Input
Amino acid sequence: MKPEISAILVAAGSSQRMGFDKLAAQLDGKPVLAHTLKAFLTCEAITEILVICSPERFELLDPSTFIKPVRRVDGGAERHLSVANGLAAISGHAEFILIHDAARPLVSQADILATLSAARTHGAASLARRVTETLKRTDSEGLTESPVSRENLWLVETPQVFKADLVQSAYRHILEEGLSVTDETSALETISVKTQLIASTSPNPKITTPADLEALCQVKF
Output
């Protein structure tokens, strides 16, 4: 039997930097959130999807497109608390858990499957891209001081996929210790578990600013 894989879409953010609800913004006639959900609905390896969001955001989605179980879970005050809520609601049969930022609607099937494959081998995997730009360290006034080597530096993306017991243990630890993390690779590092990074093969930007959204409006979905 195929392992059960639960996907958590983190969609509870306030979009403060946007000034409007970025997940409700229209791309090719559909909300950003709907495009992100579609990527995982059409991935045969995923067995259930939990959308961490408010009831109002969940109403952006069309239930007639739910070709597999999709459930809404309330978010928390911070991202890691939203993920914790999702983990608590996961099916008890899940062998692997995938976490993805809903503000990344371009994620490709190939990259989802590559990350899942790496997680099956290593127990923990995340999509990422190598740093290719020149890096500089500056003073407090923004004046350059020194170059920073980009060797072995990555920009971490999502999805991130883990054996269920690993990510659940990591979250129990950070909640018990009152820690705050910005992603699940950081959560696993608090219990000394390393994550295999997988290079993304196609653009997978996170919508953070209006300019990001404007750029995505040029993409054909």
In short: DSSP finds seven helices and eleven strands in the chain.
